[in-house]
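A.,

Following up on our hallway conversation. C-alpha cells first:
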C-alpha cells in the first residue's frame, strides 16, 4: 500500500520558519509529480507547491512565492517544504500528495492519486 507520512508541523510565531517532510513508500509505479496542499478551517483545500519529480521544475501558488521552497530527495523518497516568513494566513493542515500522471493542473486536488494524513501548521 502507498503511504505518505508528513512531519514537521507545529506552532511558530509570525515571521518564523518550519520545514515539512513527507516520506513516501509502496508506490506501485513512478509518481511523476509531488505536491503540497493545505486546508484552513472552513476553506477548501488549496495547492501550495508542486514539483515534477527529478526535473527541478516547480510550481507555487502566488501567496507563497519567495517564501516557500519545495524540494525532493529521491534517495530517501522524501519531499520537503521549507517555509520561511510565515504569516497568520499560512495556518492550515498541510498535506503531501502524489500524482502518477501529471497531466492535470498542478494545483487541482482531483489530479492526485495518493494523500498523506496531514500535519498542522499554526502561525500566531
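Then the amino acids I'd put at each of the 124 positions:
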Amino acid at each position: 500500500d502507498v503511504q505518505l507520512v508528513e512531519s514537521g508541523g507545529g506552532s511558530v510565531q509570525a515571521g518564523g520558519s518550519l520545514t515539512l517532510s513527507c516520506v513516501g513508500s509502496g508506490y506501485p509505479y513512478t509518481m511523476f509529480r509531488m505536491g503540497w496542499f493545505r486546508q484552513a478551517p472552513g476553506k477548501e483545500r488549496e495547492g501550495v507547491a508542486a514539483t515534477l519529480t527529478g526535473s527541478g521544475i516547480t510550481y507555487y501558488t502566488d501567496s507563497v512565492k519567495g517564501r516557500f521552497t519545495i524540494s525532493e530527495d529521491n534517495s530517501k523518497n522524501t519531499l520537503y517544504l521549507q517555509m520561511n516568513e510565515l504569516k497568520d494566513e499560512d495556518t492550515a493542515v498541510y498535506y503531501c500528495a502524489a500524482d502518477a500522471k501529471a497531466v492535470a493542473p498542478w494545483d487541482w486536488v482531483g489530479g492526485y492519486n495518493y494523500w498523506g494524513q496531514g500535519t498542522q501548521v499554526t502561525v500566531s
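The mean pLDDT is 96. Curious whether your intuition agrees with the design.

B.
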